[in-house]
Amino acid sequence: MRLLAAVLLALSAAVLGRGAEERLPDTLVWMPMGDSITEGERDMGHPDRGDDATRGGYRYQLWSQLTEAGQPVRCVGFRTGHQGTEEATANPDWAWHCGLYGGLIAPIAEKGAHRFNVESALEHAGYPDVITLMLGINDLSFLPSDDAAGIDRVFAGWVELACRLADLRPHSQVLVSTLLPVKPGNKSDDRFGPFNERVRAAAEAKAAPFDRPNVRLADVARVAFDDTFDSDAYKSDGVHPNETGSQRVAEAWRTAAFE
User: Fold this and answer.
1) Can you tell me the mean pLDDT for 156-160?
2) How large is the average pLDDT for residues 79-108?
3) Rounded to whole angstroms, how far apart are CA atoms 81 and 99?
4) I want to staple 229 with a disulfide (CB 3.0 to 4.6 A). Which of 67, 160, 181, 202 is the partner?
5) Beta-carbon contacts of residue 162 (< 8 Å; ≥ 6 apart)
6) Whose CA is closest to 134, among 217, 248, 42, 225?
């Protein structure tokens, strides 16, 4: 939990400056941001209901792992739940998030998907200690196959979004993730790898967004899956992790970013 301690120590002065009454000093405030993988699945947080597929969702799993390890966590965002998901009302600290089904970095009006409004999301989330970002798979799925220029455009938009998060919340740790592998033959399975390599190269070179002191890479795709699709960890659609996969994603977030 070394990063958690460092985050809380680094932010204590800023928090006290805004008013210590805003939150307990030992509670980590986390803003999860992403697409439907961040939203989670039906029955998430209801271990007595559903099955491995309907309970998929890394937010609940990571919240549970951290709190069980002794780190209180409160999630913030602009919504709870999503289409088909019922949040557990007994666990309000993990219910809020900034995840959108079909969430996009750049708008594609004819696809009917949603572009993130960073300013609006932050207005609802306030001043989180940690912002996690896992976004881009929907943008990649709309590209023609082997469209290197398109991958570059998606990456450029991802950089811009991550930089806005970091610049608007300079006292927040912004932890950006690589994209999870998808089922071979999926319309984006030949694109997530090249995209992730661009992210890793930027991190290695300390290029934007990693030129910001509050931005770090969480290589969740490599830590959780070694960049390889595992059907046992996914729903039948080959995109969304099931409960087993969500546990692995949560462990990877914790290993790559929270320890």
Assistant:
1) 96
2) 80
3) 9
4) 181
5) 133, 174, 176, 208, 209, 215
6) 217
